[in-house]
Write a structure and sequence with these properties.
mainly alpha; single chain; 76% helix
Length: 123
Amino acid sequence: MKRFINYHLPVLLYAGLIVTFSSIPNLKTPKIIDLQVDKVAHFFEYAILAFLSHRSLIHLESKTASRYAYHFSAIFVAIFAALDELHQCSVPGRDAGLGDLSMDLAGAALVLILLWYRGKDRN
């Protein structure tokens, strides 16, 4: 139970938080100078999700899951991000965007690459 609370519950709660914010109608983010806060938020939002999902997978008792944690995390985050964008189409005042999805995937990719290099240095 302690392993679930420490490693698996955070990714579930965080994914729920993403869905909760995606369900807010007409949610607008400010545009500061030429920087779109929305794109930066997407990047970091999914970077955190990738980190948490990778962390969860390496702490599973399955050797296959921990061995392929980078791959499974990337697949999970990509599917979750795509479904989240589709979900936003049904929320009033929200829409799906390839720009948002691209930033989601870029944030996740950066974190998983950094984790891979960090793990590579330890071996």
